[in-house]
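Predict the structure of GntR family transcriptional regulator.
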Amino acid sequence: MARPTYQRIADELRKRILEGTYNPGDRLPSRQALASEFDVGPRVAADAIQQLAVEGYVVSKTGSGTYVRPRPAVRRLTRSWYREARGGSPFRADMAAQAVRGGWESASEPVTAPAEIAERLALDTDAEVMRTTYTFTGDGEPVMLSTSYEPLELTRGTAVVLPEDGGYAGRGVVERMRAIGQHIIQASEIVTARSAGGEEAERLGIGRGTVVMVIKRTYFTEERPVETADIVVPTDRYELAYMIPVEQG
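Done. Here is the predicted structure for GntR family transcriptional regulator.
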């Protein structure tokens, strides 16, 4: 099946942006000019521009036109057991290493574990978990999202039941769990990619449909999983760097 005409126009404009024909900050031809160049109606040209806006390549300014979006500097997020085990916030340490002020907003509430989360935490389907949603920022701009889940059968009534309240607020999962006698020995991460949903795009300040990385992370003690999270990272802003310990023989 042939691709819709507006997608073929978007493909050509995207190619021009990636090859440098249109540079960051350049104004794209008007919709009328594009309609004339590609011999289509203005509505088709508008749909092509909208497709590029959704993908994050361009931004439209009312009364001014459509401009190539400056590509943000790619920063690094380090996934390292050594850094997790030291204590404190690994995210804040990452940002500080790149001269960026790291922070976050969060909200916690007890909920019944969704089916996938119950499976990841080896819980009964009616078990309660503390769900905490995060929006992480760098210099005040949104960087990544996270939704974490911790079994309330472990944390209820303890000093760490609310991840961002009390004496352990702002600490990493490893340090918080250690405070209640849960010694994490390993973590697993599954990394996939998909298009951002509407709410995610709004919270991250990106176009709906922009490709994001999704990290499904789970922490384990010797006996059980004690925390799992879905972490959402825009691919055009951050790269993941994994530091893997190697035992010396």
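The chain has two domains: 5-68, 75-243.
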